[in-house]
Write a structure and sequence with these properties.
Helix content: 55-70%
Strand content: 5-15%
Strand order of the largest sheet: 2-1-3-4-5
Shape: elongated
Largest sheet: 5 strands, mixed
Distance between the termini: 31 Å
Number of strands: 5
Length: 350
């Protein structure tokens, strides 16, 4: 562990923790569908920063893509775009950016402004037919969604809630059974008539209760001290927190059941819970900009789904209709981990 953990930290921080924005999932609503509008969209795709995931047929699709997190940028080109350009008019287009990650949004706004400015200059020069300074042809109307002031605390605080829950649920609970072995009290537990399910509940309940109390404190601190908006359902937030805590505490107990020392249990828990929650959840760096192999690994990290749910509830105000895949994964993960923990305990108790 003395050699493996530093190397793991080096590799994770080197590969994952980056402020560069190389891929922006984009939804496009092209109402004109002309040669001019296609030229503009080709500019975005050719930049290699914008990945056009969806070509929407209406406003609802654009909003749904941004609300669900499937897209970070929405581009809307109005009707008669090409006709108005040929008339020499200044034509507005709309660009919407998901600012639940303010760093990504700031960089995306700069990319959009650069591409549209260059395109506008080229089109104006073609239409005017002059080598002099051309007038503007395209006026991009930028709208920043969910975090209009681009406050970093608005996306940091929800992510920190997930990290705090991981510390409470995974790291602390990983010491419980290992402590019994070190103190020599495991034999007494084996000799008692309690069932495995009762023992698991007894180990789970305190950390889940402490974790839920910490959720309340974190939400109160985030909203009252830092001014982070809570636009969604408070009860839905508590429901997601409970599902995540059950899985995190269950995983900590599973690690503890397989370890005979608290030192080994804490090290394994850090590698299995805290580091993935911090590095592979989308909290420290956008998942879309990670290496493809790590993007695949992140699908197995519960904190990825919890961070998505927290940002959706805090900043977007969306409900279970949008977040049901995250809820389903967290519930399934908790059920599987608790079942494996009960099996591990049964082997010990037998």
């Amino acid at each position: 562990m003395a050699f493996a953990i530093p190397m793991l930290l080096l590799l994770l921080f080197g590969w994952v923790l980056t402020l560069d924005v190389n891929i922006l999932e984009t939804v496009v609503y092209d109402q004109d569908r002309s040669q001019r509008s296609r030229e503009l969209l080709e500019r975005f795709e050719a930049s290699h920063y914008f990945h056009v995931r969806t070509r929407a047929l209406g406003w609802e699709e654009v909003e749904r893509a941004l609300d669900s997190g499937r897209a970070q940028v929405g581009l809307v080109i109005p009707r008669n775009f090409a006709r108005d350009l040929e008339r020499g008019l200044v034509v507005p287009i709309q660009a919407m950016v998901d600012a639940s990650d303010s760093n990504t949004a700031t960089i995306a706004l700069a990319y959009i402004d650069t591409i549209t400015t260059r395109y506008s200059a080229q089109v104006a020069l073609q239409i005017a037919g002059s080598s002099g300074p051309p007038p503007a042809a395209v006026d991009v109307r930028l709208r920043v969604w969910y975090n209009p002031d681009l406050e970093s605390k608005d996306f940091v605080v929800p992510g920190l809630v997930a990290v705090i829950m991981t510390v409470i649920g995974g790291l602390l609970s990983s010491l419980t059974v290992a402590r019994e072995w070190e103190r020599g009290t495991m034999e007494q537990l084996i000799a008692t008539p309690i069932r495995v399910s009762e023992l698991i509940v007894g180990k789970l309940a305190p950390y889940v209760a402490i974790g839920m109390l910490d959720v309340l404190l974190a939400v109160a601190g985030g909203t009252l001290i830092f001014g982070v908006p809570l636009r969604g359902s408070f009860w839905l937030l508590l429901g997601f927190s409970l599902l995540f805590l059950l899985g995190a505490v269950g995983l900590g107990l599973l690690i503890s059941a397989r370890s005979r020392t608290q030192l080994m249990a804490s090290q394994l828990a850090m590698v299995a819970t805290l580091l993935p929650s911090f590095m592979l959840s989308g909290f420290a760096s956008p998942i879309e900009n990670m290496p493809e192999a790590l993007q695949i690994v992140s699908y197995a990290v519960p904190a990825r789904y919890f961070v998505t749910a927290l940002k959706g509830i805090f900043l977007k105000g969306i409900g279970l209709r949008m977040l049901w895949p995250e809820a389903l994964f967290l519930a399934g993960f908790a059920a599987v981990v608790i079942a494996l923990t009960m099996r591990a305990f049964r082997k010990r108790l037998d």
